[in-house]
Amino acid sequence: MPTKVNNIIAQAAQAKRKNWIKSLTILQNGLSEFSSDPQLLEALGDLHLFKNKNQKALQYYRQADKAAPHKESVLHKMANLHMLDFNFVAAKNCLEQIANPSSASIFKKAVCCIHLQVPDEATSLLESILDDPTNPEAVSFLLCEQYISLKKFAKAKEFIEILQKKYPHSNKVTFLLGYYLYCQKNGWRHTTTFCKRKKTASTIWATSKFWRKPPTESVCFRQRSTILEKLCDFRRSTPPFLNI
């Protein structure tokens, strides 16, 4: 039976791009033969996700999870869909059901904790996967930002120095340095409330070239703060470094 199910999924995958309806029919017919098969249910979720039918995809993923609980790939996909809806409580609950989570799942959980304003847990989760060589650079950047937010300035400074050597031309490092200097000089303020004017992430990163001048040059701190405010504004909708 597993072999036949795999063949059905392979046929559907082959037909998906050219004929989505045919792919759907193949999987639905397979489900009629193998009722509640978790692989077929997950494949149906993937198929609907391919067409951006997120709610329908979520329904199939829930059925797949019910048929075979705690499968990481299904729970991870469910968490992603919840995060797209900014339902970080539901996303975190999905990720917590994974028995042996991968670094990717732990990273997602940390992002949920940041949005749910649980910075200590977020920091602990990020620290636990920091040494994993498969991690993206976003882990280091996000952890450094958490150190700054929690006023752990010694750790933040150490991290920034490491990141400057590793990514000498990165605007993200420049942003962190500006954020660090701002919080050091003015104390903690909730950066998401600074600037009401919205900008795209790409435009914001372009402005961060302004921060490359050292503090001793004739650029006043007030001007630098204005740039930082604009850099921080997009955090309302997107966790820093997650999708950039």
What does this structure look like?
It is a single chain. The chain is an all-alpha fold and 244 residues long. It is built from 13 helices and no strands. The radius of gyration is 22 Å and the shape is elongated. The C terminus is likely disordered.
Secondary structure layout:
Blueprint: H1 2-15, H2 20-33, H3 38-50, H4 54-67, H5 72-84, H6 88-96, H7 103-115, H8 119-128, H9 138-149, H10 153-166, H11 171-186, H12 201-207, H13 221-233
Helix pairs in contact: 1-2, 1-3, 2-3, 3-4, 4-5, 5-6, 6-7, 7-8, 8-9, 9-10, 9-11, 10-11, 11-13
Short description:
This protein is mostly helical. The protein is built from 13 helices and no strands.
Give a quick set of tags describing it.
mainly alpha; disordered C terminus; elongated; single chain; 244 residues
First-last Cα distance: 43 Å
Question: How does the helix and strand content classify structurally?
Answer: mainly alpha
The percent of residues in helical segments reads: 55-70%
Strand content: under 5%
Secondary-structure element series? HHHHHHHHHHHHH
Main sheet properties: none
Shape: elongated
Which spans of ≥5 residues are poorly predicted at pLDDT below 50? 187-244
Radius of gyration: 22 Å
In oligomeric terms, what are we looking at?
single chain
Instruction: Note the total helix count.
Output: 13
Number of strands: 0
Average pLDDT metric: 77
